[in-house]
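Customer escalation, tier 2.

The customer says the design service returned an amino acid string that "doesn't look like it belongs to this structure." They asked us to rerun it and document both sides in this ticket. The original structure tokens are below, unchanged.
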């Protein structure tokens, strides 16, 4: 399983948080709050698993402000595979604060202007959040 320190070490820049959250109410605002993010679920966009994997790969591969490569694309894909395969179950739903692939960026949900991530929402009321923050 990939943890925050592995992400920070592999990227060599920025901060990362990885959290497993239990929220039986399935209230995404509460999930965001428990993850230390702004509790504004209107900023989240739902994605399918393929798009979530691509977004997570992009967030791991390059820094957010300048899009400078931080690790090789194959390394980023492998890390995204490991993260999603460890936490996604059949029926999982995937959320992000936009689509970094298309340049559609919503609120960072943090104090940083450069922050994004993926939340894996499982049907059993468990959530996994991986959120990346970079500085310019």
């Amino acid at each position: 399983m990939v943890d925050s320190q592995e992400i920070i070490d592999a990227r060599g820049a920025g901060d990362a948080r990885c959290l497993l959250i239990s929220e039986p109410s399935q209230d995404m605002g509460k999930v965001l709050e428990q993850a230390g993010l702004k509790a504004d679920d209107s900023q989240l966009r739902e994605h399918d698993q393929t798009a979530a994997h691509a977004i997570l790969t992009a967030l791991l591969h390059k820094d957010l402000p300048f899009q400078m490569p931080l690790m090789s694309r194959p390394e980023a894909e492998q890390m995204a595979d490991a993260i999603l395969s460890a936490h996604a179950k059949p029926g999982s739903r995937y959320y992000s604060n936009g689509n970094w692939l298309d340049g559609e960026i919503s609120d960072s949900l943090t104090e940083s202007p450069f922050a994004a991530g993926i939340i894996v929402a499982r049907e059993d009321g468990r959530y996994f959040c991986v959120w990346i923050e970079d500085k310019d």
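Tier 2 assessment: The sequence is consistent with the input. Residues 46 and 95 are 4 Å apart (CA to CA). The first strand starts at residue 15 and ends at 22. Sent an explanation to the customer and offered a walkthrough call.
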